[in-house]
Amino acid sequence: MGQKSHEIDFEIIGSEMQLVEIELDPEESVIAEAGAMMYMDNYIQMETIFGDGSDKSNTSGLIGKFLSAGKRLLTGESLFMTIFTNSGSGKQRVSFSAPYPGKIIPMDLRQFNNELICQKDSFLCAAKGVSVGIAFNKKIGVGFFGGEGFIMQKLEGDGLAFVHAGGTIIKKELRPGETLRLDTGCLVALTRTVNYDIQLAKGIKSAIFGGEGLFLATLTGPGTVWLQSLPFNRLAARIASTIPSKSRDEGSIIGGISNLFENS
């Protein structure tokens, strides 16, 4: 059986604030989250669609499209996605940029039994034919304390998908029975053979005063996992902590100068 997803070529550009440039042959398409596009050639046609445009969302007609869109809504994403199609006669390019500092990871789903589980905000774009759905985690501990809740994104298909994560990305191959413990926010993606659970951090003093939180994610092989050194929530918290409050501004030198100009 031939490949169902469109076969696309790509180039990842940049080091810290990356973008992926995708080259499409005539009538080839790529799907992406709304707002991710950076630039595109003249003959790229852009269309907003329900769901992800995959065969799964189209087989049941309008109902299938609504179910596909509803799954995305459960992950906190928009009901809509954007599809970019080469309507010209030659090769055309379209690019998508990362939302914050980090790396864009190309994932050939054929290498992972056509399925990959990833954190819900990490998907950037994919070849048309890749299904972007949800993966429910049945374990109550993971649901309440896993950082991502009961729901993570599930990418299915036989094409290329692009995932974005913060900071430096580490790929680890876990042997059968091998266990890795990590901060819950540092998980980017995992293959479906990996067992994902949440455990209470040992030692109440370490949990409360160690700065690592009460719970750790536990990943048990076999399978492949991807980790990020800078989860977005850490970045956001660090930025928020450096923003001075209004009261501190008023008592600072900068605040005093600002008030001087305002009163003049």
Would you give an account of this structure?
The chain is of the alpha+beta class and 264 residues long. It has a single domain (9-243), classed as Mitochondrial biogenesis AIM24 (Double-stranded beta-helix), CATH 3.60.160. The chain contains seven helices and 19 strands. It has helices at 55-58, 61-74, 140-145, 204-209, 232-242, 246-251, 253-263; strands at 9-13, 19-24, 29-32, 37-40, 44-50, 80-86, 92-97, 102-108, 115-118, 123-127, 131-136, 151-156, 160-166, 169-174, 179-182, 187-190, 195-200, 215-220, 223-228. The chain has a six-stranded antiparallel β-sheet. Strands 11-12-9-16-19-14 form a six-stranded antiparallel β-sheet. The protein has a four-stranded antiparallel β-sheet with strand order 1-2-7-4, with no helix packed on it. Strand 1 and strand 2 (19-24) form a beta hairpin. The model is unreliable at 140-149 (pLDDT under 50).
